[in-house]
Amino acid sequence: MQNVYVARQPIFDKNKKIFAYELLFRDGTANYVPEIDGDVATTSLLANTFFTIGIDALASGRKAFINFTQNLLEKRVPLLLPKATTVIEILEDVKPGPVLVDACVQMAAEGYTIALDDFVYLPELEPLIAMADIIKFDFRLTPKAAIEDYLRQLSRNSLCLLAEKVETHEEFEAAQEMGFELFQGYFFCKPEIIQGREIQGSQLTLMMIMAQINSDTFNCDELERLIARTWDFPTNCSSISTRPFLHVPTK
To answer: Which of 26, 97, 155, 206 is the one with CA 20 to 30 A from 41?
Structure first.
């Protein structure tokens, strides 16, 4: 076994009470984002969150914001996760083409909460804005005048506004005056690193195992094949617990 790490940063409401946590990939105790492929970072984060450390230990019953790349969104990976606790955070570099929009429409229809990260208004983002629940603005990178202009573009939408990278009391007060409801940043708390111990096995295959267990078309032979591939030994399906770790939507 080896150590695995997940960083979590709380998201607060106007009363400075914890509303949710954003979960972030880390590969050690150093509190910074390493240079790593986005797909690898997110799938590692998901495996560490749901299979090693546990979503309850990380989120304490609150919602968990998780970043998803274009590729993982188009593959509908978020649909494997419990919608009651998962906030699908769409990164700012995602291109809203037909495949991605269709995937997000399905996620929204199934009741998932969708957030747009590091928001900068562009007309092509309208399909995503229409289904988003939360819009995140970076208070470090976006001037106040630009944020106010973007908010005018969004005034016709019923959206929850989240100010991230809030680092001073003055920024917190300014965000409140602009109508923000949620807040995140070093003014409140730096990301906290949680450590766990990883059991040997393919992280993506572990997710596939949980998806198979929760599927309405549960197939024992397929489950045995996945488990044998992960741990490299034959198994008996009757001995496997079917406690639901992940949610797989019915089709």
So the answer is: 97
**pLDDT at residue 219, rounded to an integer:** 60
Q: What's the rounded Cα separation, in Å, for the pair 20 and 159?
A: 17
What is the mean predicted confidence (pLDDT) over 116-126?
Answer: 92
Judged against a pLDDT cut of 80, whether residue 240 lies above it is answered with: no
Q: Is 68 left (phi over 0), alpha (psi -120 to 50) or beta?
A: beta
Instruction: State pTM to two decimals.
Output: 0.78
Closest CA to 57 of 6, 114, 113, 112: 6
Tell me the C-alpha distance between 39 and 28, whole Å.
18
Question: Residue 206: which of 196, 198, 195 has the closest Cα?
Answer: 198
Is it the case that residue 200 has pLDDT exceeding 60? no
- Residue 42 CA, chain-centre distance (Å), reads 8
Angle (nearest 5°) at CA 239 between 76 and 52: 50
